[in-house]
């Protein structure tokens, strides 16, 4: 698997101190002596030439390429992918909420002490960022694919926390219309120039944005995850034993300590 | 001689205007027809609002969300092994195929690889899921067009496939058999021989469908040239799988991408059709089923021995990172964008389902078609509601 070297790198990047800026992280990982991805490196170079300063982070890892652009250049980046790189297939568009320090049912289900994702006051406001980085709470990401080159690319852009807003790409890929409506209702992103942002899944009077991390999953608040009830330690099984039975224990052991 | 008063003149003008308004309403606005939320053509609860001018659709808008279960949010409060139970229910006709890309994404982040035997069995069951899913389509397409027989044939022969899936996994529809690093258990005794006989039954079924439908004059008249999707438009809307191969795009993730699964060890063909109409979509899927039976047979002939589970910790924690894994599922390109922060469960999972993108083309595709063709087009695009609404 080609992912081996890259995944190791990724783990290394995750382990670096939070004080390091995400851009520096990205460069550090790309400069590591990893085999150059011959199909994706030219793509990255073409985008760097096209976008210049607006390209704030990038990474090629595990047979995939990520590019993070400034939110003002979001549409320009998509145009570049479509016209310069020949991405004819629109895969999806969605968003991320990096907010981690929320005390909600979602966090209560697991043991918070055991979780590395427990509130970490890092340099970037507590947001642990993933591939190609992220500075703000919200991130919009889309995936495009070229059916002739058989290569795909993930584009990302950081959005403002107060007013997550980005230009619509419906006029570039018609399929983005539904995906942007979904991101609008689920995460509260606004897409300027979208022909009609309205609910797609939820009823019209629905309030809130369910995929934001501060949106409570009410059923979990009322009643703990029922899977907790029948959790028992496997009799006589050493911790960390990796046989087939142990592997499907569904993370039971970790929840066993939960009161 | 009648004297026309000013009042009468005004009344006449007003009357003419009212008539004109009525005409405008009838001719230009037409009738709004609600198809669904429950309709035999929709495999679930999808509502389509169409505005008609006579028999022709001038405007159409699918309304989804009747079955939205919020799986993307729910994955955030589950551990990785628990997520397979959820994603089983996305495309419930080919459920095993939903588990595989998610597990592969988790394995990619953990840098774990399942042993070869597990990968081969995964691939075989993946293709059995495809058979269970698409055989139903092949019969169902007939029933949408008024031919009742094919659907009975389809249910009859799909049962053989479901029995095999049940024998191996314990579940007919929701196997929940894939594990991080391998599989739940090994195959039962005698399974391989059973599969071989079922595969030849499925091929016979394909021949029957070819006799019953493909060569049928009524079927051809109702599907040829209906619901044309040009390749460029289809790709822009994100159509994938057989839907886009029926528009002449030679793209199959199973063949084109380097995956740990075992397709690369088999000899098979990706079929495309240049027409892009409803007939092409049916024909491509028919060939896809035939190829899938060949893949399953080859996999079971060359099934390697060995363990079915790699060494993984008892408590599965996935290192921080992001991974995107997609596969060519029965309905099209299905993928999971998994974001991990090193916890027991995903931090965020974006589930890219094929049907959501496949039906987003409907407002464009249904414009100008006749009402009976709406049903043909819906049937030929072939979606599962759980796959749209997740």
Give an overview of the whole structure.
The complex is a heterodimer of chains A (259) and B (390). By secondary structure, chain A is α/β, with parallel strands linked by helices. Chain A has 2 domains: 3-223, NADH:ubiquinone oxidoreductase Nqo5 subunit (Beta Polymerase, domain 2), CATH 3.30.460; 224-259, no CATH class. In chain A, 29% of the residues lie in helices and 18% in strands. In chain A, the strands form 2 sheets. In chain A, strands 1-2-5-4-3 form a 5-stranded mixed β-sheet. Chain A has a two-stranded parallel sheet with strand order 6-7. Chain B has 390 residues and is an alpha+beta fold. Chain B has one domain (62-389): Cytochrome-c3 Hydrogenase, chain B (Orthogonal Bundle). Helix content of chain B is 51%, strand content 12%. Chain B has 16 helices and 8 strands. Chain B has a 3-stranded antiparallel β-sheet. A 3-stranded antiparallel β-sheet of chain B has the order 6-7-8. In chain B, strands 4-5 form a two-stranded antiparallel ribbon. The chains are: A alpha/beta (259), B alpha+beta (390).
């Amino acid at each position: 698997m080609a992912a081996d070297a890259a995944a190791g790198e990724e783990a290394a990047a995750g382990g670096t101190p939070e004080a390091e800026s995400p851009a520096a992280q990205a460069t550090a990982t790309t400069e590591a002596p990893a085999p150059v991805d011959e199909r994706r490196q030219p793509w990255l170079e073409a985008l760097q030439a096209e976008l210049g300063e607006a390209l704030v982070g990038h990474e090629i890892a595990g047979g995939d390429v990520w590019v993070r652009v400034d939110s003002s250049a979001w549409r320009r980046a998509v145009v570049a992918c479509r016209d310069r790189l020949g991405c004819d297939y629109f895969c999806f568009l969605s968003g991320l909420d990096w907010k981690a320090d929320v005390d909600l049912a979602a966090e209560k289900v697991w043991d918070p002490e055991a979780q590395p994702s427990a509130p970490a006051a890092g340099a970037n406001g507590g947001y642990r960022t993933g591939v190609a980085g992220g500075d703000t709470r919200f991130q919009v990401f889309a995936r495009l694919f070229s059916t002739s080159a058989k290569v795909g690319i993930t584009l990302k852009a950081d959005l403002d926390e107060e007013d997550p807003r980005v230009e619509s790409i419906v006029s570039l890929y018609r399929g983005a219309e539904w995906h942007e409506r979904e991101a609008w209702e689920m995460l509260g992103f606004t897409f300027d120039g979208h022909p009609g942002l309205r609910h797609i899944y939820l009823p019209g009077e629905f309030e809130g944005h369910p995929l934001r991390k501060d949106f409570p999953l009410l059923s979990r608040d009322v009643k703990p995850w029922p899977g907790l009830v029948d959790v028992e330690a496997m009799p006589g099984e050493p911790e960390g034993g990796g046989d087939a039975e142990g592997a499907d224990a569904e993370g039971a052991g970790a929840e066993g300590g939960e009161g | 001689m009648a004297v026309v008063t000013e009042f009468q003149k005004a009344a006449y003008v007003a009357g003419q205007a009212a008539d004109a308004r009525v005409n405008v309403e009838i001719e230009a606005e037409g009738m709004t027809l609600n198809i669904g939320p429950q309709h035999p053509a929709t495999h679930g609860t999808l509502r389509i609002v169409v505005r008609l001018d006579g028999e022709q659709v001038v405007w159409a808008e699918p309304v989804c969300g009747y079955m939205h279960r919020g799986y993307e949010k729910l994955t955030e409060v589950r551990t990785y092994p628990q997520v397979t139970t959820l994603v089983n229910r996305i495309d419930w006709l080919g459920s095993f195929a939903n588990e595989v890309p998610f597990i592969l994404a988790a394995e990619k982040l953990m840098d774990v690889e399942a042993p070869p035997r597990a990968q081969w069995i995964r691939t075989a069951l993946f293709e059995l899921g495809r058979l269970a899913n698409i055989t139903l389509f092949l019969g169902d397409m007939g029933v949408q067009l008024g031919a009742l027989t094919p659907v009975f044939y389809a249910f009859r022969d799909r049962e053989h496939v479901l029995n095999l899936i049940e024998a191996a996994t314990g579940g007919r529809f929701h196997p929940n058999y894939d594990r991080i690093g391998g599989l739940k258990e090994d195959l039962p005794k005698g399974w391989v021989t059973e599969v071989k006989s079922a595969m030849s039954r499925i091929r016979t079924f394909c021949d029957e469908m070819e006799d019953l439908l493909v060569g049928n004059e009524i079927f051809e008249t109702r599907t040829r040239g209906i619901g044309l999707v040009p390749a460029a438009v289809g790709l822009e809307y994100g159509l994938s799988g057989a839907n886009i191969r029926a528009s002449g795009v030679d793209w199959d993730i199973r063949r084109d991408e380097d995956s740990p699964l075992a397709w690369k060890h088999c000899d098979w063909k990706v079929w495309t059709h240049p027409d892009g109409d409803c007939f092409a979509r049916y024909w491509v899927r028919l060939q896809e089923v035939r190829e899938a039976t060949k893949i399953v047979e080859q996999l079971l002939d060359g099934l390697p021995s060995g363990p079915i589970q790699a060494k993984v910790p008892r408590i599965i924690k996935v290192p921080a990172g992001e991974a995107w894994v997609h596969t060519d599922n029965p309905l099209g390109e299905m993928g999971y964008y998994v974001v991990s922060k090193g916890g027991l469960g995903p931090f965020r999972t974006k589930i890219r389902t094929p049907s959501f993108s496949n039906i987003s083309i409907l407002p464009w595709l249904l414009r100008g078609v006749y009402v009976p063709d709406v049903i043909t087009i819906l049937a030929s695009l072939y979606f599962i509601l759980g796959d749209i609404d997740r």
